[in-house]
Design goal:
single chain, mainly alpha, 84% helix, 0% strand, globular
């Protein structure tokens, strides 16, 4: 376990800080490449769905059946998988949709009339929305950080794949966070730094996971965690990534990205056998 700790932290940090990269794109460019974002989000969803069902869930079941027997282990795998879904669904449920960072936004919105927006909504309301948006992205990223860290801790190759997939989905997420924060503050720099900082929730999730896991980590704990991680990633893919990919207006591109992500993940797993 200790051999992979630094790698696991590094991958989680990379995935989390990709939110800041998305924010930087919103500062640098004036238009949104919707086709690229649609393909990238679909690709990320494909990677996460395929690896969750084909690799992570299977590892979880093997670990739990070894620890508790075939029948009990199978039941515990299913329960843990849906427990992971329940956790991320509850997080999503308690964040109001207008403050949800997974709502699709375009870079072009950065150039809309901020002064008029202040007049319509009021400065305090916009500031509240900006701060809640930063908090929301942090809450969403926390379990994703734990998922990346746990995967890399057990299987570095698997952790790299998951980190890349989550990093890809954090790029357009950074754009989506920057837009409301920019309207809340009127400052592109503040929008970037608040969005960048919110991405630190992923390594924070990894750190908390390490503090808890280092004293109790064993085969059965790994099984429970892996099954829960699979549930989290499937929910994120179905509830956030693929719908957002289609919202960018490139439905077939999103599907091609989804299939490409699955194919690349399948080939990667075969080559690692």
């Amino acid at each position: 376990m200790n051999e992979n700790v630094l790698l696991a932290f590094g991958l989680t940090l990379f995935a989390g800080l990709s939110t800041g990269f998305g924010s930087a794109l919103a500062l640098i460019f004036k238009t949104t490449n919707k086709k690229f974002l649609s393909m990238a989000l679909g690709f990320s969803a494909g990677v996460m769905i395929y690896v969750s069902f084909v690799e992570i869930l299977q590892k979880a079941r093997l670990a739990l059946t070894d620890a508790y027997g075939a029948e009990t282990g199978a039941w515990l795998t299913v329960v843990s998988f849906f427990a992971g879904i329940a956790v991320i669904a509850l997080i999503d449920r308690f964040i109001p949709s207008y403050e949800n960072p997974h709502e699709a936004h375009l870079i072009e919105e950065m150039d809309s009339d901020t002064e008029e927006a202040h007049k319509k909504s009021g400065e305090k309301k916009l500031m509240r929305m900006g701060l809640f948006t930063a908090l929301a992205i942090g809450i969403h990223n926390f379990p994703e950080g734990l998922a990346t860290f746990t995967s890399a801790l057990v299987d570095p190759a698997l952790g790299i794949s998951i980190a890349v997939a989550i990093a890809i989905h954090n790029i357009p997420e950074g754009i989506s966070v920057s837009v409301p924060i920019f309207h809340a503050t009127g400052s592109r720099k503040k929008a970037f730094w608040l969005s960048f900082s919110s991405g630190l929730a992923e390594p924070a999730g990894a750190f908390l996971g390490y503090i808890v896991l280092r004293s109790i980590f064993n085969e059965s704990v790994m099984g429970f965690l892996f099954a829960g991680v699979a549930g989290i990633m499937v929910f994120v893919s179905i509830d956030e990534l693929f719908p957002t990919a289609r919202e960018y207006g490139e439905g077939h591109t999103a599907i091609y990205g989804l299939i490409s992500g699955m194919l690349l993940m399948a080939l990667s797993l075969l080559l690692l056998m």
